[in-house]
Write a structure and sequence with these properties.
Order of helices and strands: HHHHHHHH
Largest sheet: none
Helix content: over 70%
Length: about 240
């Protein structure tokens, strides 16, 4: 029964990112266009859109943390996540995904056609990377290939560890690439968005702050709240006390 729960949470995770994540980018795109027309006024429709985007973002963060929690419960050789660890992981993912969606949505409001090109190139890089990782989730290569295809979609928005092995270098590669992409997307939006847009500077600050907070909270999680707490930097610090 525990294994079935883990599989069910994985399916919900994939469904969330293949449906809710693109819809969230679309919602932000529509919001950016509609609010640009009346930058000093927030209508009830726009407020409802903001609440909807917040709940969608929270649901994606919840789906990621729920799967990690369910997966550890299903594996006898893995320590379980604490409630505090789960909560912190939800917050980490909330800011992490939020920064990415904000960059994609705002960029789309100025360059809607080029967004597909950006996501397509990113997807191909991620899919190729996942294939080189040599994941071993499915029983045969055909199913594994399809699994990797779906993972590539998820990797457009955030990093998901597809293989039980040290993740530090993979996290570093993904976040460096994401930072460069997000910075380029936000810079292009900032330069080419309509002159009357009043939230240019707040949006730039919010996107950067969200990305940094996601990184900081992720580091806190792995140093203090991860079930194994086996990070070398943390071990050295503890031994030096």
């Amino acid at each position: 029964m525990i294994y079935e729960d883990a599989d069910a949470t994985l399916l919900r995770l994939f469904e969330c990112f293949m449906e809710a994540a693109p819809q969230l980018v679309l919602q932000l795109y529509i919001f950016a266009l509609s609010h640009s027309a009346s930058p000093d006024v927030y209508s009830w429709t726009e407020l409802i859109q903001l609440v909807s985007m917040f709940s969608s973002l929270l649901s994606m963060a919840w789906a990621l943390a729920s799967y990690q929690r369910a997966l550890r419960y299903s594996l006898e050789d893995k320590k379980n996540m604490t409630i505090c660890g789960t909560a912190v992981q939800i917050i980490w993912r909330f800011f992490d995904i939020g920064a990415r969606v904000l960059a994609l949505g705002l960029f789309a409001s100025v360059f809607p056609t080029y967004l597909f090109m950006v996501c397509g190139v990113h997807y191909m890089i991620m899919f190729t990377w996942i294939r080189f990782m040599g994941t071993e989730f499915c029983d045969n290569q055909c199913e594994e290939f399809l699994y990797n295809l779906v993972l590539g979609v998820l990797f457009i928005f955030c990093y998901f560890n597809p293989k039980d092995s040290p993740t530090r270098r993979r996290f570093t590669f993904y976040y460096v690439l994401s930072f460069l992409e997000n910075s380029a997307l936000m810079s292009l939006w900032f330069i080419y968005c309509p002159a009357h847009v009043t939230y240019k500077y707040p949006a730039m600050f919010l996107q950067f702050l969200s990305f940094v907070l996601g990184l900081v909270i992720m580091i806190i999680y792995y140093l203090l709240l991860h079930p194994t707490k086996n990070i070398t930097v943390w071990d050295h610090w503890v031994k030096s006390r």
